[in-house]
Amino acid sequence: MSEGRPSRVRTAPRNPKPKEWRAADLSHQYVASYKPFNFVDGEGVRCSLYVSGCMFSCPGCYNLAAQNFRYGKPYTQELEDQIIKDMAQPYVQGLTLLGGEPFLNTQVCLKICRRIRAEFGHTKDIWSWSGYTWDELQKETDDKLELLHLIDILVDGRFLEPKKDLTLQFRGSSNQRIIDVPASFEQGKVVIWSRLVR
Question: Positive or negative, the Cα torsion across 160, 165, 171, 177?
Answer without folding.
Answer: negative
